[in-house]
Amino acid sequence: MKKALLVVWLMMLTLALSMALTAPRAAAQGGTVNINAAGATFPYPIYSKWFDVYHQAHPNVQINYQSIGSGGGIRQLQAGTVDFGASDGPMTDDQLAQSKFKILHFPTVLGAVVPTYNIAGVSGELNFTQKALAGIYLGTISKWNDPEIAKANPGVNLPSSDIVVVHRSDGSGTSYIWTDFLAKVSDDWKNKVGKAATSVNWPVGLGGKGNEGVTGLVKQTPNAIGYIELIYAVQNNIPYGKVQNAAGKFVKADLAGVTAAAAADAKSIPDDFRVSITNAPGPKVYPISSFTWLLIPAQIQDAAKRDAIRDFLKWMLTDGQKFNEGLTYAQLPKEVIARETRAISLIQ
Amino acid sequence: MSAAASTIAHEVPPQAGPRAFLHRLRQGDEIAHLLTLTFAAVILLLTSMLVYELWRNSHLSRTQFGWAFFWTKVWDPNFDDFGAAPFIYGTLVTSAVALVLAVPLGLASAIFLSELAPRNVSDVISFLIDLLAAVPSVIYGLLGIFIVVPLMRTTIGPLLINTVGNLPYLGALFRGPNYGVGFLTAGIVLAIMVVPFIISVSREVLLTVPREQREAAMALGATRWESTWQVVVPWARTGIMGSIFLALARALGETMAVTMVIGNAAAIKASLLSPGDTIASTIANQFTEATGDLYLSSLIELGLVLFLITFILNGLARILIVATERGGGRPA
Fold it and tell me: 3-class SS at B214?
């Protein structure tokens, strides 16, 4: 009995001591703003860089980002478990209507998707017309020497073998951009497969998990074609083809071409920034590119969090953009930055 | 409460309830009983909560598609049309292929290790096999991508198409374009993954067969093989079946390795060489980016379906074991 009393007494003492010791520290931490965010995996490398650099410049602001995927980011934001979300595709009207609060879209960086292939005996860069890409992914073009492919590649000796189509097996922003482009350039695609989506019911082909899965399948399988992020292709030295843009020119994807696509459409971008820039007009434009967005509530109750998020957005649009090219993300065009800067004041 | 009980205990003669209870409490019996009961109940609670959550969260999809979910062949997130048939098919086919390959291999190895190999050799090999069972599944997936897939595409696939593929009926299983990835490749990788379970458990069970059984068979003039096959294996068959069902459970639920080698196409094709998909791999692939409510709900219902399949197969296993026990052989 006495022993038990002693134990209880000791426990209370430890508790009191620990409270006394931690109390001042907790008070000192009162100035720290912890912000939680979740969403898209595609911009994760640049986001983690931004949040880290920003934290070093502003030690009192800590942004934790979980790259759980765009779908998860939207759901967690709607459920209120994160302070802001991130997505590779803009939220749909339905999704916005279902949300209990108003959500603003802020474009952060640009990405592009490129076709990569492995054809026996063909080493040069292939040109892909818009019809060819849609036909290949619909299954209506099934041989490499199909006239639609051959006419854009004079002098290339294309084999008569069957095309092995490779797509992403996991839901992904890369697939979203790719299907967004195909739906824009092909009515057949739009009717049969539907609008842009992170996962679709693919008419043909094999699925690979992630950029690395698609690349692996394309490299291993003779006569295969797949699509991967430009960043992934550049960082891993994977050859990729040129794609015909809206002006009819064949363009090889690079960061300048991607920024050009966004700049070409800058005037037609709506005020909520929910826009697709695939197949944008202009001779230098690379046609398969897209923004990726931060999803931020229009009303943030916590004043400290609100100020921190607004300040971060300002920093991201100015100093933050300088980190883009180092990580092979395309910069936002000036017009978009100017409009976004004005939109920050909408966060109340 | 306990204070009151102890005062009563002091006043009342020794045989009374509280006193006896306290005595047992001191001995640890009551504590052990309560503790183990609680933990057993927690397991039951966890399972029922799991089913309840799957049931609750798949409400939208269940009301929308009803029973048709089981036989609808379309999985189209873009038009909100979902059916589990291709994935149920893929799950069952890959697991069946895995068992067809793994059971003879595993059983033969277990018999060799327990009956024929010298004890020290058997122990060393068993240790290595137990290690294999602990290898993470992504490693088996890589093994599949770098070794099994190229081998399937260049050698095994064409060989099967040119030989078995020409046979009537059976030939339908080995036709069509051969990509290297597909049901058969996934089945082979799964077989490699589950074989250690079959060997390890079966060997342990075979080793528990009493020595007298073997001696009696030999005394009746049986050869070593006859004694093994007609006496030892039937004696151990409940345990051996247990090992097979453990292997089946692992094959049904395997996600990562299968995703890497099955080709991920939501299609039902007769040929084992064509790409397919399983329930577990679809959930893992699509869950993070599933934005629509119905889409998410359908993925959760897929989880429920997988649970149901495991439940049914386990039930069948129980029935099979009971039926074979009644068939005689081993004394009850």
Answer: helix
CA distance, residue A106 to nearest chain B CA (Å)? 19
Question: Per the structure block, which two tokens stand in for B4?
Answer: 């009151």
Nearest chain A CA: its distance from B18 CA (Å): 20
Q: Using a CB-CB distance cutoff of 8 angstroms, which residues of chain A are in contact with residue B277?
A: 169, 207
Low-confidence ranges of chain B (pLDDT < 50): 1-9, 11-12, 328-332
Is B62 among the domain residues?
A: no
Q: Do A220 and B150 touch (CB under 8 A)?
A: yes
**B263–A75 C-beta distance less than 8 A:** no
Residues B144 and B287 in one domain: yes
Total structural domains within chain B: 2
Q: Rounded to whole angstroms, how far apart are CA atoms B212 and B202?
A: 19
- CB contact under 8 Å between B289 and A221, yes or no, is no
Same domain membership, residue B219 and residue B198: yes
What pTM value is reported for the model? Answer: 0.83
pLDDT of residue B3: 44
Nearest to A206 among B76, B181, B291 (CB): B181
pLDDT tens across A67-97, in order?
Answer: 888 888 888 899 889 999 999 888 888 889 8
Same domain, residue pair B132 and B274? yes
In a domain, B151, yes or no: yes
B28 and B106 within one domain = no
Q: Do B51 and B143 sit in the same domain of this protein?
A: no
Q: Which residues on chain B place their C-beta less than 8 Å from a C-beta of chain A?
A: 74-79, 145, 149-150, 153, 177, 179-181, 259-260, 263-266, 275, 277, 281, 284-291, 296
B304 assigned to some structural domain: yes
Do B235 and B171 share a domain, yes or no? yes
- Please give, rounded to a whole number of angstroms, the shortest distance from the CA of B146 to a CA of chain A: 9
Token duo for residue B226: 């006859």
Q: The domain containing residue B28 runs over which residues?
A: 15-57
Strand runs (DSSP E) across chain A, as ranges?
33-39, 61-66, 84-87, 103-118, 127-128, 164-168, 206-208, 224-229, 242-244, 250-251, 289-297
Q: Determine the Cα–Cα distance for residues A149 and A227; give it in Å rounded to an integer.
A: 17
